[in-house]
Each structure stands twice: as C-alpha cells, then as structure tokens.
Amino acid sequence: MVQIRIGFIGDSITHGTGDETLLGWPYRVGQAEVARGHDITVYNLGIRADTSELVAERWEAECEARLRSGVPGATIFAIGINDSAHEKSATKDGQRVELDRSLDIIGDMLTSARTFGPVLWVGPTPVIEDMMPLARLPGVVYDFRNDVISDYNQAYITKAAELATPYLDLFTPLGADPAWEAALRKSDGLHPNSDGYVLMTEHIGAWAGWRALFDG
User: Fold this and answer.
1) Hey, what domains does the chain have and what are their CATH numbers?
2) Residue 212 has what pLDDT?
3) Are 14 and 192 in contact (CB under 8 A)?
4) Does pTM top 0.90 for this prediction?
5) What pLDDT, on a 0 to 100 scale, did the predictor assign at position 136?
6) Residues contacting 64, CB < 8 A, separation 6+
7) Which distant-in-sequence residues (6+ apart) come within 8 Å of 65 by Cβ?
8) Mapped to the 3 state alphabet, what secondary structure does the chain carry?
9) Which strands make up the sheet holding 39-46, listed edge to edge?
C-alpha cells in the first residue's frame, strides 16, 4: 500500500467544470487507487480560468498548507490551455500568456515543486472550435483554437523532456477520439461532461508517470 497526498494544480479542467457529478478527473483517479488498496488524499487545486501566471501566484502556499506534514506527497500540474486562449476584453486583445512566457513560468513551478515530492505534468485537451468563443464573464471573451493548443502542447512536451518531468500528451489521443468530441458537445466545447472526465481518467490512470507513484 502506498500512502500519499497529491496536490492537483490547475484550471477549470482540473477543477472538473462541466462534470455533472462534480468529480472531474482528480477524484476519479484517486478513487481508482483507493480501490487498488492505496491510501491517497486528493487536493483539487483547480481554479476556473486560471493561466500559468495566475497559478504561479498561489500554488506554493496552497501546497505548503497541504503537503508538508511528514506524509509522502506529489504535485500534478495540469495547466496551459488557458495560456493558449485569445482574450478580447477592455484591457487585452491577444494571447492570455504568450508561449515563451508560459514555458518559463511553468518550468519554474515544476522545478520548485520538487520540494514536495514527484512532479507530473498533464497537457491541455482539444476543444470544439465551432462552439467557440466563450463569453462567461461580462466584457470578456475567450477564444480557443486547436492549432494554437497544439503548438503549446508540442512546446510543453519539449520543455518537460528538458526538465526530466513526466508529461502526458492528452491532446493527440483525445483529438482523434469521437467519444471526446461527443463529451465536449454535451457541455460547452471546452469542458467535457462526465463522460469526458472518465476518458481523461482512463488515460491518466494508465500513464507510466502516474503509475510510478504507486507501482514503482
């Protein structure tokens, strides 16, 4: 049995937005490990619409409060898709976080997070472009495009390799999966419904980076 506390750090897709069961994928992967006999504590630290810049302002204090108690810990970063979005608002008309800056910020966080134990990085997911843009906040429009997300994903793969950090490319397999598209269309085109989070759970739960936390 592995005893571990894990901080899942990210955005709305980490949070589980769109999931009518309110479980998202962090609680589902946690449930699967409990069923295998492990003692896992899940801390969902996802905040809707957060970019890497916004996560950088808060993640360390949140992990300090949860992962420094003598129990083995780990951090899972699942950020980047909001960095790729084009924002149209009263104060901005452009990428929310340019790619080079996104890489620098996330790289710094991944390096610093090693103090809490193993560090993993889950990449961004595809969207339904004909359901974009999204206007959830007054006066703010976010437009997500798969070609831009793909560019960020490929750069993240390279960055993760440089940092020797396990990275899960979800964009490639989910982009070719009609079940993922169906799950997005049942929601808002960015966030899946529960079916999509189940798909994410299957990929993450089978990922060598994740399995190393429990089977190593």
Assistant:
1) 3-215 (3.40.50.1110)
2) 97
3) no
4) yes
5) 83
6) none
7) none
8) CCEEEEEEEECHHHHCCCCCCCCCCHHHHHHHHHHCCCEEEEEEEECCCCCHHHHHCCHHHHHHHHHCCCCCEEEEEECCHHHHCEEECCCCEEECCCHHHHHHHHHHHHHHHHHHCCEEEECCCCCCHHHCCEEEECCEEEECCHHHHHHHHHHHHHHHHHCCCCEECCHHHHHCCHHHHHHHHCCCCCCCCHHHHHHHHHHHHHCHHHHHHHHC
9) 39-46, 3-10, 73-78, 119-122, 167-168
pLDDT, one tens digit per residue, over 75-94 is 999 999 999 999 999 999 99
User: Phi and psi at residue 65, in whole multiples of 5°?
Assistant: -75, -15
pLDDT at 70 over 80: yes
- The mean pLDDT value for 65-84 works out to 95
Cβ neighbours around 65 below 10 Å, total: 11
**Does residue 134 surpass a pLDDT of 90?**
yes
